[in-house]
Amino acid sequence: xxxxxxxxxxxxxxxAYERESDLRHEYLNGEIFAMTGASLRHNLIAGSxxxxxxxxxxxxxxxxxPSDMRVKVSRTRLYTYxxxxxxxxxxxxxxxxxxxxxxxxxIVEVLSPSTESYDRGKKFxxxxxxxxxxxxxxxxxxxxxxxxxxxxxxxxxxLADASGLDASLELPPIGCTLRxxxxxxxxxxxxxxxxxxxxxx
Length: 201
Known about the structure:
By secondary structure, the chain is an alpha+beta fold.
């Protein structure tokens, strides 16, 4: 992501600009950053993950949002767009525009070469300051692998991971099971050294 030309980017100015823009931007510390477009594989993975979570949550108290829902990290004043965010119970929203979420319980990011270090590092540091957040999911797009970081009672984050199409991960904060065969449905790793076999094949 590249910062836009310098100007006095207050939060109010950023939100007004963002709501009129055809592109999405992150905001942090008075700067805004244009977000790059996602690859075909990234979009397929994000879409499949959204569908499998939505299917499991549609009749319960939790709601899943795609990447158009902006999230504000109040403590660090970061505004960003997770690939997927989940809220259980009533959503807390910043204002009457209802486009900025304050209380995600789970966030999902699909890793890309240009954003992986950020998603694992600084961005996760921001997310960890969200009092509501109980789980953080990172999904690889260059291999069949999903990582799940769960907040513990003492504030530590515990990692569980899974790889291969026959694997799955439990997501206790939202009562869902993430099957990797569903996450990577229709994804071709042709030419990659990745096991593509479906568990039922």
